[in-house]
Amino acid sequence: MAFIGFDKVYKIYSSGVKALQNVSFSIEEGEFIFLVGPTGAGKTTLMKLINREELPTSGDIWFDDIHINHLDDGYLPFLRRNLGIIFQDLKLIPSRTVYENLIFPLQIMGIKKHLISKLSARILAMLEMENRKHHLVEWLSGGEKQKLCLGRALIHQPQLVLADEPTGNLDQYAAYEMVETLYLYCREEKASVIVSTHNDRLLKSFSGRILQLDQGHLVTDRYSRVRVKTGF
Amino acid sequence: MGFVRDAFYNLRKRPSLILIGFLSIFFTQLIVNIFIFGYLEMEKMGKFSAQSFTIKAYFQSEITDEKAQETVQKLKNLPNVSSIVFLSKEDAQKKFLEYFELTPEDFPVDENPFPLSVEITPKRVESIPELANQVKNTGLFDDVIYGGKNVDVFVRFYHMLLSVGSIVLFLVFIFSLVVIINLIRISIQSRKGEIRVFHLIGATETFIRRPIITEGFFEGLFAGISAFFLSILVFHFLLDFLHAAFPFFPWINLTDIMAPLLVVDTFMGGIIGILGSLIACNSVLKEVLR
Description:
The complex is a heterodimer of chains A (232) and B (290). With 232 residues, chain A is α/β, with parallel strands linked by helices. Helices cover 32% and strands 27% of the residues of chain A. In chain A, α4 crosses α5 (142-154) and α5 (142-154) packs parallel to α6. Chain B starts with a helix and ends with a helix.
């Protein structure tokens, strides 16, 4: 069975908006996927369905043998602990420090203190934000906030990373760096990564599978192969 | 113990809400403390007065000494009896003569007219009417008398204090609980975004509830402890004054009330805090996490 499976999934909001229509695909473990499409194509909805933020109107969604849409609410947190999510609106807590925001997933999982400091030090070094550790999030620039989201999504080494427009506030170079980090994480940890983006230049810079949505329909499912180290 | 740190973080973050909650529990505890003070004072008065309020019961004339002694033994076993003294006909006559400062020659009678009797000292004044009834119901006594009006007034006042106190306590407890519930609801609503983030990245409801309930507990505990210290200070000066002004009255000592106040204040403060946050969590968390 596939790592993630969508089977004839429809999502129609109560307003009548048809966000997804008859979407079926499957993703294997360790795949790097670009989810592309214009605004309103259904990319965010698709991400929310995997995270069980939304339930499909019909159809089935599977994650690692778990039937997500029939999952009891009590098990939801345990599903989400397997995911690392970069939200489109970041969802950081502005009144808390960089460090506190970064370690939330580890605290939630009840990880021991010494391991938390070890993992957080590694991630802060990777993000080059060691000197920002005790700064409040509200003091950070847009790009730094985005980087922090990336760190929070990866710190607990999830099986699946969902990145919803993670490069929105970033310049081309920073956007490339961010996707490269996700790409390397996917390769090194054998985790699946789904990145939704509008940025065509990124698609040309990384090998991966491209799922294209348009008006809620999955219109393209193809692979692109490029040399990663090419850069911009 | 991350949730304790989180609870203190939340307490620091919302000082005005915390202050309102704190004051509401604080004043509730002060009212409770006044009630406890009154209750303990009544208890002390009751015990003190019990020495002077005795029940006198006069046996029927046909009751023999043996039967009377047997009855005294039975009465001794009643739960509210502190002590019981049996008065024979001779003892009664002697007492009578002593009271009126007479000699037997001043009171010449062929046959001792005094009945056998008992003097019962109750454990608590408020139990006198009930105890007197129990004695009467044995059917062996002609007359059972006790402090009469004084006792009745005391007992009525005691029961009134208990009833009014219980109602007031219940009302202030409910008032305080409602205030805490609403304050914690506001606190949860103001943290809606934060809580949703926690939930989205995999926090269980227990993980989310823990700091909120801890926050409520500490708020209640601090308010209770503060009320305890203020009450002790006030009662210290009040009792000093009362002991000096009315030295013959059986006032309680400060040390008598310290332990009950500390236990009730910390326990009740904590309970109001925990209960308030639990109810608030149940009512608002589902809505926030939806």
